[in-house]
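JOB MANIFEST
job_type = single_chain_structure
chain_count = 1
residues = 426
[input]
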Amino acid sequence: MTGPKIYTVSELSQGIKYLLETNFRELWVEGEISGLKVSSLGHTYFDLKDANSNISGVLFRGFAQGLKFELANGLLVRVRGNITSYDKQSKYQLMAKAVEPAGIGPLQLAFEQLKKKLQSEGLFDQARKRPIPALPQKIAVVTSPTGAAIRDILSILKRRYANMHIIVAPVKVQGAGSAEEIANAIIDLNENFPDIDVMLVGRGGGSMEDLWSFNEEIVARAIANSKIPVISCVGHETDFTIADFVADLRAPTPSAAAELVVKSKVELAAQIAGLERRLLQSLRIYYENLQGKFRRLATSRMLVNPLALLERPTRRLDEAIEGLFSLSDERLRRSGENLKLQSEKLKALSPLFPLRKGYAIVKDAGGKAVKTAAGLAPGDRLSLQFAEGRAEAEVVGGGGAAADKPRAPKKDGDKKSGGPQQETLW
């Protein structure tokens, strides 16, 4: 009887690895991404989990480059790959070869992710969009040189305005490298043809995969950075791309873009004719108004009799002068009466006014007024001031005595007085 088979650790690990790789080959696993990490070599490591379990996974750089969207924690995905083990650590993991979002296609998810990113940067804001010139002289078209779109655009432009200057930048519009060609063409046109008035960027219809070049970030940023106004015209009317949101104007189709970018000669001619009619009508109305004003002025009283213009001002001037003289005479009369009244009042207040009634002012030898006889002595010389003239006198008798009476004053003209002295006081 033989005993149980004894495995080495390496044998057991290799057996497990063989069983896993043989029985779990090319399978799909659905779960939520967590613990996402990208190494310096570009390999992506993550955990795939559901409510009860967790399995580690790896997506090597070669497979990761083929993804159209960005992996993120919390994203529900479906991973295609195989199960293998790392025997040195007795761990198994999912070797991913492809990843798809669960419930939504990878291109749609990539579209939504890039749209959200660029919108948060303000690249869709209406305020940054530039107006499209009404009458462009030079137009650039970035599209495939062999597709139906360029034929439709050139045909419409030639029909609507044959003298238009058109520059065609031929590019691939789908497949590998097409996004880079479109972006580079937009950049080159800005650098080498700054006099371009407007640029059309687009292609004809197709599937979402066919139109995907216009959903690439490199194309969106080239349009956003263009100094030349850009009209996006990709696919059919129901197709929307990232380029449509970034461009200054979206046209539903390439043909519609050609219709929008220039007006036909017929439309321009009709617009010019309409403006001409409006201008002539305005001039006619303006002329008729001027003519009516001229007639009214020509028949007006002022022009028929120009001196009539001076009648009213002259009358007002005369009235003003008369009023001024009347006011001046009245004021002069009142002022004279007032002066006379004040003069009489001033005379009444004068100390010399009583002298006209026979009084005299007595002054001693020093020229001071003598108010009483008590201070006088016989022999004192006095000066008597009358209303008209002066006289000298000498006190005789005792000062202040009733019997003592002064001698009669010397009359004017007395020789001792040195001759008559007269002075008009009032």
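[summary]
The first helix runs from residue 9 to 23.
The chain has eleven helices and 13 strands.
exit_status = 0
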